[in-house]
Structure formats: C-alpha cells, structure tokens
Specification:
Alpha-Beta Plaits; alpha+beta
Length: 218
C-alpha cells in the first residue's frame, strides 16, 4: 500500500460544480500522462457547500498534484482550491476506484499518537460486522501527510471514507439492533473516544457507473 493519494477540495463558481466535474473527467487521459489516476469525484450532500467538489487522485509523487490544479483552473469555473496528500493504512489495498452510487461519509479524525495503534485495531475488529450488518463498505482509511502527520497538538490526522446505500442506512447504522450490532457500535464508539476531535460530511459519487444522483441536497 505505497500509493500516494491526494484529496482536492475544489470550490466551483455558483451552480458550476457539475460542469467543473465534467471537465475534470474529460481530462482523465491527460492526467494519466502526468502519472495521475482519478480515483473519484464527489458532490456535496450534507455538511459542505453546494458548489464544492471533493476529488481524490492517486499520484506517483506529491508534485503531480499541481497538474490536477492546472486542469481545474483551466476550466474557468474554479473559485478556490486546496489539497492535502495522504497515504492508505488498512484500506484501500490498491488504487481501484469506487464505482457504486451511495451515501459517502468523509470522517476526519485527530488521534493522539499513543492511541493510534488501538484505533487501528478497533477498526480491524469492527469493520467486518459493520459491512455485513448495513450493506456498507469501508472505502479507505488514510493517514494525512506531511511526514509528521500531526496537527498543532501533535495528533495524527486521518480520513475515513465509508459508503452506505443511502442516508436512511446512515441513520440505521447509528441505531444498533441486536447483540451483534451493539457490539460493533461499542467498538466504533470506543474508537471515537480515543480521538481528540472528529468531524464528518457526506457526499455522493459523480463518477459512479451504476446510478446518477439527481437529488437537490444543498
């Protein structure tokens, strides 16, 4: 799992998020010539501005992120852009992108270094039961760069992406039914308690191949 990922947060001009995404996808082959694979493009659902895109790429070097910036800026629809590099931990095992539509949760954690290994072990223990119970998938858990991977308090910063079929399953997954689900929730709750901070927003996948999201979320 040596791939380097880049999370790009792109703010489009008002109501231009779709056209900005389309232009990025159309330039996929151009990006590949720079050693960049497009992992996915997501639109805002809950918790982020309407015209913001979240883009993940797999790159050969941190410098490659600049090529994505150039493609986005060339469209004329971009208003602001920021990015951060990160490396996979337990998942993903490779750069195969997600393709199924659904409710994608982006949860950021700030974890004290002394709690990190326990945090990872709880993920390993909880994920199989979580996926089986809720028709959901853990897309990835990335540790944010730079090399220090730390916030101003010395914490390890990470991004967890999960996919659920829809928002109804999001709510369902927070309300365990039965002993097995309660055990999964207890492990996930323990993981949250190991962190100094966590925040989440949700999105849907513009590069999905099975279904298009046409809802007006924000």
């Amino acid at each position: 799992m040596s791939d380097l990922y880049v999370h790009h947060r792109a703010m489009a001009a008002p109501l231009a998020w779709a056209s900005l995404a389309e232009q990025l996808v159309e330039r996929r082959e151009c990006l590949e010539s720079y050693g960049i694979r497009l992992y996915g493009v997501w639109r805002s659902q809950i918790g982020r501005p309407r015209d913001e895109l979240n883009v993940l790429t797999v790159v050969e070097s941190p410098d490659a992120a600049q090529a994505v910036s150039e493609v986005l800026r060339a469209s004329g629809a971009l208003r602001a852009l920021e990015h951060q590099t990160m490396r996979p931990t337990l998942r993903p095992a490779d750069g195969t992108p997600p393709t199924r539509q659904g409710n994608y949760a982006w949860r950021f954690f700030e974890t004290p270094p002394e709690n990190w290994e326990t945090f990872l072990n709880l993920c390993i223990e909880a994920w199989p039961g979580f996926e089986d119970a809720y028709d959901s998938q853990i897309i990835g858990l990335w540790r944010l760069e730079p090399a220090s991977n730390a916030d101003s308090y010395g914490n390890i910063r990470s991004l967890l992406m999960t996919r659920r079929p829809d928002l109804a399953m999001w709510e369902r997954s927070k309300l365990p039914q039965g002993e097995a689900e309660a055990e999964v929730r207890a492990k996930l709750s323990r993981r949250y308690d190991l962190c100094d901070s966590t925040e989440v927003h949700t999105s849907t996948l513009l590069t999905a191949v099975d279904a298009e999201d046409t809802a007006r979320w924000t």
